[in-house]
Write a structure and sequence with these properties.
alpha/beta, ten-stranded mixed sheet, globular
């Protein structure tokens, strides 16, 4: 049975389990039809020219876990930012874990997508925002058709959430191969602020494929600080689709740290729908072996007097493959835009590959837009200088790579996140250094 055939037959089983009277029901059927028409993206499509999904979708995935799996806090503590107090929405094999989570409805909502979809009190928010921003491509449509669970975050006006929100999806390996479809909706009201941390983590060596969709809405003067930590096992693949809608004077900062997993595809789309918006997209990628990481970004400036800043630093070793496809689109009416995009890459191995395609499409004439891309190896003169000062070659290489990534880490606003990422980089580079960046 082909993957598409399995999807169609599984959808019938899903329909027998979910409430067909909800707002999401009609969206499911429409999305399934869209997936049936578009299917899984192929390399003949320009957006996936350098990323083949064939090996990811040739496995016999279970689409629904056969049973609930209980895990303890001690099993997952190392994957959480446990040094800080946080709201937590934790899922195990796609199912919400109440005893590991800390949700709230006090002043604002941090809870489950299933609760929001099935409770009439949330209808106005769901009907206003749900599936209004996600791309209508095949994979996002597949998520819309099958998504049953995820995080629902709704912050009203004039609220500064006092502690971060962690959204973590664990896979236990009880299924030989599992595919999950997490769906997150984040709505941040006028003059409100929130920090969010997202992670997907496998606890076994069994195959897992995650096809995630996140929609983020930032109202006037809202501030959203979002961190994606991607350091999964090599049996795991992640297809992440995140779309952001910004209104006047809002600021959204999104950091992506990609270290683990077999194949990772990040589709990140920012839409500035108000003046004086500020968007920041930063990322650090360090991969090796046969790992593959693909960043596809879009910042669409549709209103004047806005700014955007993109900086992606990437290090590739062995036969690792990287893709960066960054696009800045400036509409004709979007005058006085200040847009910056930079993608810097280090190839540690002669067999590593990076495919970079920075793009500017500008239809306005009073703008400041720039982009740049570099691909190279470590500076041999700097390496020699450090060795001449008594620093071992391995440590010198690691320090140079830390310095290379430092500009991205400087924009991290949560100290515990910065410390955690610094340690992950050190572990990835197989070196022990005596300071934090």
């Amino acid at each position: 049975m082909s993957f598409k055939d399995k999807i169609l037959s599984s959808f019938i089983a899903l329909e027998n389990e979910v409430d067909t009277e909800t707002y999401a029901h009609s969206l499911r059927n429409e999305a399934l039809g869209n997936f049936e028409k578009l299917g899984v993206p192929q390399r003949k499509e320009e957006a996936y020219k350098y990323t083949s999904l064939k090996s990811v979708f040739n496995k016999d995935y279970s689409l629904f876990p056969k049973k609930d799996t209980a895990i303890e806090y001690s099993d997952i503590k190392r994957f959480l930012i446990h040094e800080i107090d946080a709201y937590r929405v934790i899922f195990v094999d796609g199912i919400y874990s109440s005893h590991l989570s800390q949700t709230t409805h006090d002043k604002f909502d941090v809870c489950l997508m299933s609760s929001a979809l099935n409770n009439p009190k949330y209808n106005s928010v769901i009907e206003t925002y749900y599936n209004k921003l996600a791309s209508q491509d095949g994979l996002s449509s597949l998520n819309t058709a099958f998504a049953r669970e995820g995080a629902y975050i709704h912050i009203g006006k004039n609220i500064a959430v006092e502690k971060p929100i962690e959204i973590v999806y664990f896979s236990t390996g009880n299924e030989r191969a599992l595919m999950t479809q997490p769906r997150n909706l984040v709505v941040v009201g006028e003059n409100s602020q929130v920090q969010i941390i997202e992670r997907h983590q496998s606890l076994s060596d069994n195959e897992v494929l995650t096809n995630a969709v996140t929609e983020i809405f930032a109202a006037q003067r809202a501030m959203v600080d979002y961190y994606k930590i991607q350091n999964d096992k090599l049996n795991a693949s992640l297809l992440d689709h995140t779309s952001v809608d910004q209104r006047t004077s809002s600021e959204v900062r999104l950091h992506t740290f990609s270290f683990g997993g077999s194949l990772t595809r990040n589709n990140l789309n920012f839409y500035q729908n108000g003046e004086h918006c500020n968007s920041l997209l930063n990322g650090v990628t360090i991969i090796e072996g046969k790992q593959h990481v693909d960043h596809s970004t879009l910042v669409h400036h549709s209103q004047p007097n806005c700014e955007s800043y993109q900086e992606y630093k990437q290090i590739f070793d062995d036969r690792a493959v990287g893709v960066f496809n960054g696009k800045v689109l400036v509409d004709k009416i979007a005058q006085k835009i200040n847009a910056f995009q930079q993608n810097n890459n280090i190839l540690v191995s002669d067999k590593a590959t990076i495919n970079a395609k920075p793009q500017l499409e500008i239809f306005a004439d009073d703008v400041r837009c720039s982009h740049g891309c570099t691909i190279g190896q470590l500076d041999e003169e700097a390496l020699f200088y450090m060795q001449s000062r008594g620093i071992g070659k391995k440590e010198a290489r690691a320090l140079l790579m830390f310095a290379f990534a430092n500009s991205v880490l400087e924009s991290v606003k949560i100290p515990e996140i910065k410390s955690r990422i610094t340690k992950l980089i050190a572990k990835k580079l197989q070196v022990d250094i005596g300071f934090d960046l």
